[in-house]
Amino acid sequence: MAWSHVLPERPVVAVAGATGAVGREMLAVLEQRAFPAERVIALASHRSAGNRIPFAGDELVVEEMTPASFEGVDLALFSAGASVSREMREAVTAAGCVMIDNSSAFRMDDGVPLVVPEVNAGDLVWHSGVVANPNCSTIQMVVVLNALRALAPLKRVVVSTYQAASGAGQAAMDELYGQTGDFLAGRATTPSAFAHRIAFNCIPQIDVFMDDGSTKEEWKMVVETRKILGDVSLGVAVTCVRVPVLRCHSEALAIEFDSPVSVAVAREVLAAAAGVTVLDDPRERLYPMPALLEGTDDCYVGRIRRDESVEHGLQLWIVADQLRKGAALNTVQIAEALCAG
Amino acid sequence: MAWSHVLPERPVVAVAGATGAVGREMLAVLEQRAFPAERVIALASHRSAGNRIPFAGDELVVEEMTPASFEGVDLALFSAGASVSREMREAVTAAGCVMIDNSSAFRMDDGVPLVVPEVNAGDLVWHSGVVANPNCSTIQMVVVLNALRALAPLKRVVVSTYQAASGAGQAAMDELYGQTGDFLAGRATTPSAFAHRIAFNCIPQIDVFMDDGSTKEEWKMVVETRKILGDVSLGVAVTCVRVPVLRCHSEALAIEFDSPVSVAVAREVLAAAAGVTVLDDPRERLYPMPALLEGTDDCYVGRIRRDESVEHGLQLWIVADQLRKGAALNTVQIAEALCAG
User: Fold this and answer.
1) Do domains B12-134+327-340 and B138-322 have the same CATH topology?
2) In chain B, residues 294-313 whose CB comes closer than 8 Å to chain A
3) Which of A326, B66, B78, B321 has its CA 20 to 30 A from that of A173?
4) Which residues does chain A have within 8 Å of residue B214's beta carbon, measured at their own beta carbons?
């Protein structure tokens, strides 16, 4: 049941969840990239309706999201949580509107393409009204893996993440800074957005636990990576950890290939890849770091080196802004690809 | 040229570098474990001489360290940097005193045992006046690997570290808190102890870079692990990262074995291992974290799970206090083992 609606040249765009950290970043990205929207509508819960958000030199008045909100809308960028996406899906697609969903609600559905435009924009042709935006940690990893698999087939990836507060939303970002100030002042701290204190701590749990002892975040990185790369047998071993950083995720990767890959050629291929910037000059102490890269769009790669512990191995380090490429930017890039398609 | 001096029942102990973060912790550990010292002497640089340090209900007056300081001393616990250890080695051993050195100066010397008492206390028999204390990140990993290799031969370990400021000394600990406060207050920050801002950041560089693109800290974890375990062919892939945490190092491990290892049996073996505590109850959100474990002595292990991406794989998460098991405690345990031996 392919999608038969054709997008107009200047689509009407709704941002659903416009007052959250990702929603606000979606509006910023639409504006910065001069997305050719006929009109942009900001939707949120009843609680936020009436709020004003600066946009393109003007203001958007936030409207309450209801099933009727999508009449006359061509593209709806959702970041309002998985349950809201599930509730609204029918109304959105029935209105002839394409939903680009940043939640985990539909990512693993067979009928829903899971898209990182640099990697698998081709999967957009078979959507039937819903396109899913992958998990933030998955996105920055697959952009890099996709570039490298041009050199040799991938066999296995071991990845440890250093994930920022922004992945848990605006309240979590506020909690990180507020709690850190409280901690330094010797005031008692009570975790709310996180399960434990995040100030000066590392929490090896993101999302809920699965029966096999992995977390759902770790499971997402395995299954989403395989779906996006179209490689069901790829070995992916993941540990996801929250660290006291505001909005950039970092990842340490050990990648095993089926045949030889040289560091020099890997560096060249990455430097030439869309959406990737290589920052890798150890003598100058230059490598990707969250403190350097807030607000940037690319996946930054450094610490590229041979992994001597396996036959054909590379190790590297990736940092990307979780709210940009990890969420809002990738969603808008999907919208752009749909319009261009 | 084996060491022929016999330690007296109540040795005279010197702590060299007594005013640093590790030196102070050494004194605390000696006191807490009621180490049977005839006398404890606090040595430091000229600058710190005359300072008073509380010890065992009394005070130690810090003496300036010179080559003559070790006459009449039986055990010298060194944590004053590699160059000081090199300068003093001859004077220490010529005085018939055993040097237990926390620096990297002699760790890879063939004539110097590199010891974690739970793992290779047996190597102490062949020292010739100097015993080396391993790198902090190495210690907590080998305690766990040693327990697990009772189940099946180890093949390869991929480890990513989340290392605390304490590994870079007291000034680095002070910089983390001070700089974080400055950052929150909007004041400019200038890194000094670290190459970059550490507040709300991750720095993928610890120690200097080697020619192969790894850092010296990463190299240490490879070669020290092999030396301590007596396993020169063990594959070890390491990424070392500094995170904004005060004094506990965390590590994410993916371990490959030569034959099957079950999660349940691994958990039992770890729970029974000396120096290891298992904290692993996902339903209760219980796992090791720096915020829980400051000031503790064991290597804490959690997130124990099967790694489905290889034939015989386990993943787990280790946290230990860098100043305790990673440095001061392990040094004092070596001293205890020498006295018992």
Assistant:
1) no
2) 302-310, 313
3) B321
4) 305
Domain ranges across chain B: 12-134+327-340, 138-322
C-alpha of B25 from chain center: 12
Distance from CA of B307 to the nearest CA of A (A): 6
Catalytic residue status for A5: no
Q: Minimal CA–CA distance to B65: which of B120, B19, B109, B125?
A: B19
Cβ burial, residue A182 (10 Å; 0-12/13-18/19+): middle
Using CA of residue B167, residue B171, residue B173, residue B176, what is the dihedral sign?
Answer: negative
Mutation target to probe the A interface, by most A beta carbons within 10 A, among B137, B156, B157, B158 is B158
Name the strand (E) or helix (H) holding B306.
Answer: strand B299-306
Structure tokens at B279: 């904290």
Contact (Cβ atoms closer than 8 angstroms) between residue A173 and residue A218: no
Read off the amino acid at residue A325.
K
- What CATH architecture applies to the domain A12-134+327-340? 3-Layer(aba) Sandwich (3.40)
Q: Which residues of chain A have a CB within 8 Å of the CB of B243?
A: 162, 202, 243-244
Q: What is the mean pLDDT of residues B198-212?
A: 98
Q: What letter does residue A135 receive in the DSSP assignment?
A: P
**Cα separation of B326 and B167, whole Å?**
9
Contact B223, B234 (CB under 8 A): no
A177: contact with B, CB 8 A cutoff? yes
Confidence of residue B301 (pLDDT cuts 50, 70, 90): very high
Statement: residue B1 has pLDDT above 60: no
- Please, which residues 241-270 of chain A have a Cβ atom closer than 8 Å to chain B? 241, 243-246, 250, 252, 254, 263
Which amino acid makes up residue B182?
A: D
Tally the C-alpha atoms within 13 A of residue B3's C-alpha that lie toward its C-beta: 25
Q: How many CB pairs under 8 A join A and B?
A: 164
CATH number, domain A138-322:
3.30.360.10
To which residue do tokens 């004194």 refer? B27
Chain B hits for A306, Cβ within 8 Å = 212-213
Task: Please report, rounded to a whole number, the percentage of residues in chain A having pLDDT higher than 90.
Answer: 98
Evaluate whether B289 touches A203 at the Cβ level (below 8 Å).
yes
Query: pTM, whole model, 2 decimals?
Result: 0.97
pLDDT in tens, A138-165: 999 999 999 999 999 999 999 999 999 9
Catalytic annotation, pick one of A97, A136, A240, A299: A136
